[in-house]
Amino acid sequence: MTRSWRRVGLVAVVCLSFGMSGTAGVQHQREPLNQVEIDALRDAAQEPAPRIKLFIQFARARLVSVEEVRADPKVTDKGLKTHDKLQEFLDIYDELNDNLDTFVERKADLRKPLKEVIEADNEFQAKLRALKESADAGKAETAQYQFLLDNAVDAVDGGVQDHRQLLAEEELAHQKKK
After folding, report:
1. Across all residues in the chain, what is the average pLDDT?
2. Where do the domains of the chain lie?
3. Are 28 and 68 contacting, i.e. CB atoms less than 8 angstroms apart?
4. Which helix (H) or strand (E) holds 68?
5. Which of 48, 63, 114, 178 lies 20 to 30 Å (CA to CA) from residue 26?
């Protein structure tokens, strides 16, 4: 075997061990929102309450779809589909937080939307923890989404703390204005 063929073989082994296909690291970023959801967000672009409510709705829908995938006996490759839905949930949850940051910078009144976010955070935590408890650690299917599930749990746990702190700051700021 020549050096160049050994190198190609080594690259193939490295790519396979990191789960990459022949495109060697090229990843396709998929939009987690469909066109109807994007249009709804565009319509609510300037108002924090409706926009944040939409992100909560979309994140909730992704967690419901995770539950549906796992419960449907007809679904093949449940691990990969669960992974994809969890990734969409995380992308939407991150976007929710980015929007909150934007509205904080604009000095918008976020007290009401934050209460809804905190309520949703509690729901998300419960669903993610239930998924984590029901996941069979030994199954190959679970290995496909375990890391992402851990990240989702961590993101929501951190979000709960951040959102509660932000609500406390918002309440304090609006009390001072009175």
Report:
1. 84
2. 1-30, 31-177
3. no
4. helix 48-71
5. 63
Report how far residue 68's alpha carbon sits from residue 46's, in angstroms, rounded to the nearest whole number: 33
* Residue carrying structure tokens 């160049």: 4
Distance CA 152, CA 90 (A): 6
d(CA 23, CA 161): 39
Tens-place pLDDT, residues 75-98: 889 999 999 999 999 999 999 999
Indicate the burial class of 13 (C-beta count within 10 angstroms; 0-12, 13-18, 19 or more): exposed
| Cβ-Cβ contacts under 8 Å for 144 (sequence gap 6 or more) | 79, 80, 82, 83
How confident is the model over 163-174, as pLDDT tens digits? 999 999 999 988
CA dist 70 and 128 (Å) reads 13
**In the numeric block, which tokens belong to residue 128?**
């993610």
> Rounded CA gap, 156 and 27, in Å?
25
Mean pLDDT to the nearest integer, 142-150? 92
pTM of the model: 0.80
69 membership: H or E segment, kind and range? helix 48-71
Q: Are 86 and 96 in contact (CB under 8 A)?
A: no
